[in-house]
Each structure stands twice: as structure tokens, then as C-alpha cells.
Amino acid sequence: MIIRQQIIPSYKRPKYTVDGKKVSFAMVPEYITIHETANTGNGANAQAHANLQFNGNSRQASWHIQVDDLQAIQSLPFDEAGIHAGDGTYGNGNRKSIGVEICVNADGDFEKALDNASAVVGQLMKQFDIPSHKVVPHKHWSGKNCPANLLKGRWEEFINLCSVERRQLDDVVSTQTEKEDDKMYKPTSKALKDLTEDLLSDMTDETKHGKQALNKDWLNQFKQGTLSESNAIGLLFAAAKRGLFK
Ligand SMILES: [Zn+2]
Prior knowledge:
Elements: E1 3-5, E2 16-18, E3 21-23, E4 31-36, H1 46-54, E5 65-67, E6 72-74, H2 92-96, E7 97-102, H3 110-127, E8 135-137, H4 138-142, H5 155-181, H6 190-203, H7 206-209, H8 216-224, H9 229-241
Parallel strand pairs: 1-6, 4-7, 4-8, 5-7
Antiparallel strand pairs: 2-3, 5-6
The structure holds zinc ion.
Zinc ion (ZN) binds next to loops.
């Protein structure tokens, strides 16, 4: 899921008030707080909420991401605290959590919005190493009945979706790692390529080495560029053991 950025200009971001001064706080995210916008009006989608924030929200409120059935838009940098959890200037909800608003506009598909939200949360869990028990409803911080639809018996289902998304990202990485582990042996210099091919031709030559010869398939794999580095090394071990280097 691509998170599109429409970051609120710094001077338009709602600020905390400390000792009569307007301030913003740096943040290292430890939690993710889930909200619903509670705005069921037609058109009250992610873009509308991103615009509301971007243009300078008159309410003393800000959150990092809004997501609907079509897209996810980021409004605040993740290293800056928003004002969304209702637990005050020093609460962990405001000061240590990424705020994610799920849109409930009547002209949107709420189920699809939940899917998209879980994808976004899964990505954030991975990016900031946040475990599922630190993905919490707004209610956790302030008692407010938010996210209202999810809290009607669907919270656990949602968290499970997020965890699945989180795990799938690990699967992608490990698949890539496996592919990297299995890099093909493709010498970049012509001389080395020719030497390798000569040697493999020799080592797979049954008329010369009889039963000790390596299987011709290895030579073919090398010619086709599908011989892996691990197998190339294995062949050298086999050849040494079988006394083919003569
Ligand atoms: Zn909320």
C-alpha cells in the first residue's frame, strides 16, 4: 500500500501550548492509535480529511494518516507528535503514537477502507517495530468511543488483519533474501567466462574422466546462465574430491 504524502506545512500544524507558548514535539513512535473519522457525509474521504489538515485545521487536532477505500495519505511526519488521542500534552497516546484515521464516508466502501487501513498499519508495525498489542483504539487513551464501528465487536478481527499484513512483509523480505542467496554465477569478464566453460567442459567429459566426470547438465546450466554461485562452488569441491583438476 502506497502512503501518499501531503504533509501539512509546519506553520499550519496545530501546536501544543506549554507555558503559554506554541510548541511541537519530536516523537519516536511506540504505538499506533486507530480512529474513525465519525464523519459519514458523502465525500468525507481521505482526500477531504488530508485537505482539511493541509489547509490548517481550525480544531486543535492533527493526525498522521487518513485512509479510505481508495488511498492512504500522510499529513504529519512520523517523527512528530500529533494531537489526536485526547490524553493531553504529556500522554503517551498523543506523544508516542502514530494516529491513523479510518474514513467512514457513506459513499465509500468501509470494508475496503478497513483492508487498506490494516495494510498501512502492518507497514507501520514493521517500519517502527511496533508489536500488535501496541496497536490500540483511541478509546484506550481517553475513553472516547472511537473507532466506533471497530469497537462494536470487530477490534480483534482488525488487529488480526494488521498482523497478517505485518507478517506478509516479512515473507516478502525473506523471499528476496532467498533469491539473493541463490545468485547466479555469471563471471563478468570474457576471459573468466571462457576459462570456466573450458574447465566445465573438461570436468563433464566422460570420455576423459569416465564415471568420475561431472554431469553435463552443469555445463549446460552455466551456458544458460542458470548455474548458481552455491552450485559453482559445490562443483569445485566435487571436482577436487574426484581428482578432476589434472
Ligand atoms: Zn478517535
